[in-house]
Amino acid sequence: KAGVTQTPRYLIKTRGQQVTLSCSPISGHRSVSWYQQTPGQGLQFLFEYFSETQRNKGNFPGRFSGRQFSNSRSEMNVSTLELGDSALYLCASSFRLAGGPHNEQFFGPGTRLTVL
Amino acid sequence: GQQVMQIPQYQHVQEGEDFTTYCNSSTTLSNIQWYKQRPGGHPVFLIQLVKSGEVKKQKRLTFQFGEAKKNSSLHITATQTTDVGTYFCAGPGGVTDSWGKLQFGAGTQVVVTP
Questions:
Q1: Any chain B CB within 8 A of the CB of A56?
Q2: Residue in B99, B102, B103, B108 to test binding to A, most A beta-carbons within 10 Å
Q3: Is the Cβ–Cβ distance between B29 and B91 less than 8 Å?
Q4: pLDDT tens digit sequence for A21-51
Q5: How far is A17 from chain B (nearest CA, A)?
Q6: How far is A72 from chain B (nearest CA, A)?
Q7: B99 vs A102: CB contact, 8 Å cut-off?
């Protein structure tokens, strides 16, 4: 099976702009989670989508949003970019039954976002 | 809220030596997962522990879940240069229907000296 893919891999934006990141999960995986990784804060959960619905949300401002499509692909959007949004954004997919637990999360290579 | 703490933050190891990294939670965990992230890479799942007192081995790696399910450890024997990377523990981020939300520890960055 192909792994989790994320596009673009690298992105440079300026403050105030907005950005959209894309994630394609492993075939058959319906749960997609997004994480932000920075040297200072480590890995922080952004949100999880399952069956096109946001199931969980982390402690991030409303500038961070996401969605999931019927084919389980997911996008996240960050509006009004700030310097502190510079980070590696990781997407992870997992197999998850409705209402049930799932096993490991499979991470994509990430999108490295730099805000100038 | 739940916090997952991991120590040490850095671990310098001579090749061939053993080391252990520890993970502690402020609350009881239903399960704990371990991931490894190589430099420049992304986290890769290593193992999940579910039962109290559970011990699992993967070649030179031994994972343990505490009896109270509030702590876990990863012990690596005879460290090799391929063990370089950051090891993260992660617990469920909430109580119900939170399986897609992982609370990661800060990680232990392992450097191996030949």
A1: yes
A2: B99
A3: yes
A4: 999 999 999 999 999 999 989 999 999 998 8
A5: 26
A6: 14
A7: yes
E strand map for chain B: 4-7, 10-14, 19-25, 32-37, 44-49, 55-58, 61-65, 71-76, 85-92, 102-104, 108-113
Q: Do B107 and A45 touch (CB under 8 A)?
A: no
Is residue B43 within 8 angstroms of chain A, CB to CB? Answer: yes
* CB-neighbour burial class of residue B1 (10 A; exposed 0-12, middle 13-18, buried 19+): exposed
Evaluate whether B71 touches B24 at the Cβ level (below 8 Å): yes
Given an 8 Å threshold on Cβ–Cβ distance, is A48 in contact with B97? no
The per-residue pLDDT for range B39-82, each reduced to its tens digit, is: 999 999 999 999 999 999 999 999 999 999 999 999 999 999 99
Give CA A83 to chain center in angstroms. 18
